[in-house]
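yo

u said u wanted the structure for the complex thing, so here. seqs first:
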Amino acid sequence: MDHYHAGIALGLAIGLLAGFLFVAFLFKRKVLDMHFDERQERARGKAFQYGFFTLLISAYAYAVSDMVLGRWCDPMAGVTLCVAAGMCVFAVTCILKDAYLSLREKPRTIMTMFALLSSVNLGFGVLHHIHPGLVENGVLTYRAVNPIIGLATLVILVVYIVNYLLRPREEEEE
Amino acid sequence: MKNLRMKAARAALDMSQQDLADAVGVSRQTVHAIEKGDYNPTIRLCTAICRVLGKTLDELFWEG
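structre next:
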């Protein structure tokens, strides 16, 4: 392993560790919470099923596209695309069934976090696009990971907001 | 099938869906889904609702 790839591996490891510690901190501060009621748990189980099958199908679709079209995408970007597809299906299904946020999570706080996460990742995507570029020799590089995550979180955020705005008002209290 | 008896029992106690949801430890949407007939609660949740609303299982959930 040369210095360049060792640097990438170290950067990824540090990024993952930082992400893990941040999420653990949010759980400790009760910003994130995993207490769902029985209807939500059932809905989330179904959503997880849809997300899992989306992940399987997209992973095979990615592998087949790589075989047929040749290398068009860095494996890291490809895997992130598949995970983002599965995550989006899971999250959107949960949102449509009113089972995305737990009983103790505050919608405004969570959606603000999503907006921040999305804008930071999309911002990195724009920076990478300007220099040195997301695509090299026709191959989508690992630098596309940030904009893919940014897009996925943006989709979840938009679906949450649109679902909230379109929900009939009389449902609030009948 | 809508559960109008549960809705009436809740209204009689002047409770909102959110009040009932908080009392039994579920989300407001879950109470709404039960009243609308979109969700069949477990016996555990049914008894919790009955206890809060001061009704029996038969009075609220038996479709005789």
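Residues 43-53 of chain B form the longest helix (11 residues). Chain B touches chain A at residues 7, 16-18, 25-27, 29-30, 32-33, 35, 39, 41-42, 44-45 (CB under 8 Å).
cya
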